[in-house]
Task: inverse folding
């Protein structure tokens, strides 16, 4: 067996181990493959994706950069680098990396999806919307693109359009609990509280331990100035996620109408 065959054997073994969730073992095999064939850009790139799965984002970026140095037109390495950069909140750099990936491979719907998500993080919602629309041109049944599109539309205060996009999400993926939650929040914005409650209930049927659904119910009651019900449901949300729910409730405009109520203030104080 020659060196190239040895390298391919290690590469194939690494790929299988990663698919089984044995990521540390996969890295060891990729390292062996690269010791035999250090210019294997696919091995460097695949290694980067596994390091990303392990939460080792800086190391992943280094691995992707090695792949790019060897093969400057290898789109998957640019996409992987963008994913890792985004997880480090280095959004502007991530956009540049996704832009390069899309220049090289413009029909990669996953790259458009990641591109749009980073644009949302940068509050560039109209541009994000265009990215998700591109995903749907390439893959119309991608429920995540319909959902992310709804997030962008909500941020643009286009609530009816967001609702339509969420309905498409749920048609494709009825068990998407977070889409049901977001749908409920959009319905609150539209003043359709009974439908909002129904959406939160649908989410809870799919995922019972679901603080966002209970939080959404609390928002609906707060907007209607039903203080006791709002507090009851916010307490329930805080059972599973006390810190996050308290932080959100402190600034969420949905609670503005009951914010000065002593009962609401006491709940926030007691949850600290």
Result:
């Amino acid at each position: 067996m020659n060196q190239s065959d040895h390298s391919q054997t290690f590469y194939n073994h690494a790929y299988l181990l990663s698919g089984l969730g044995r990521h540390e073992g996969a890295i060891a095999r990729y390292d062996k493959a690269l010791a035999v064939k250090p210019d294997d850009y696919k091995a460097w790139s695949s290694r980067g994706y596994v390091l990303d799965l392990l939460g080792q984002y800086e190391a992943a970026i280094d691995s992707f950069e090695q792949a790019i140095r060897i093969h400057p037109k290898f789109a998957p390495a640019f996409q992987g680098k963008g994913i890792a950069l985004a997880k480090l909140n280095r959004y502007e750099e991530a956009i540049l990396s996704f832009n390069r990936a899309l220049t090289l491979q413009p029909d990669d719907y996953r790259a458009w999806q990641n591109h749009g998500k980073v644009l949302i993080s940068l509050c560039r919602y109209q541009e994000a919307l265009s990215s998700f629309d591109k995903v749907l041109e390439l893959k119309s049944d991608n429920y995540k693109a319909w959902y992310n599109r709804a997030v962008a539309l909500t941020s643009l205060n286009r609530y009816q359009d967001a609702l339509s996009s969420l309905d498409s999400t749920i048609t494709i993926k009825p068990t998407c609990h977070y889409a049901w939650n977001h749908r409920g929040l959009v319905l609150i914005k539209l003043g359709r509280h009974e439908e909002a409650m129904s959406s939160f209930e649908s989410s809870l049927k799919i995922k019972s331990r679901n603080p966002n659904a209970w939080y959404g119910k609390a928002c609906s009651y707060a907007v209607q100035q039903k203080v006791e019900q709002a507090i009851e449901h916010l307490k329930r949300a805080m059972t599973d996620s006390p810190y996050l729910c308290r932080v959100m409730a402190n600034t969420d405009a949905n609670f503005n109408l009951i914010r000065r109520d002593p009962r609401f203030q006491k709940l926030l104080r007691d949850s600290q």
Summary: The longest helix spans residues 3-19. The domain at 175-272 is CATH 1.25.40.10 (Serine Threonine Protein Phosphatase 5, Tetratricopeptide repeat).
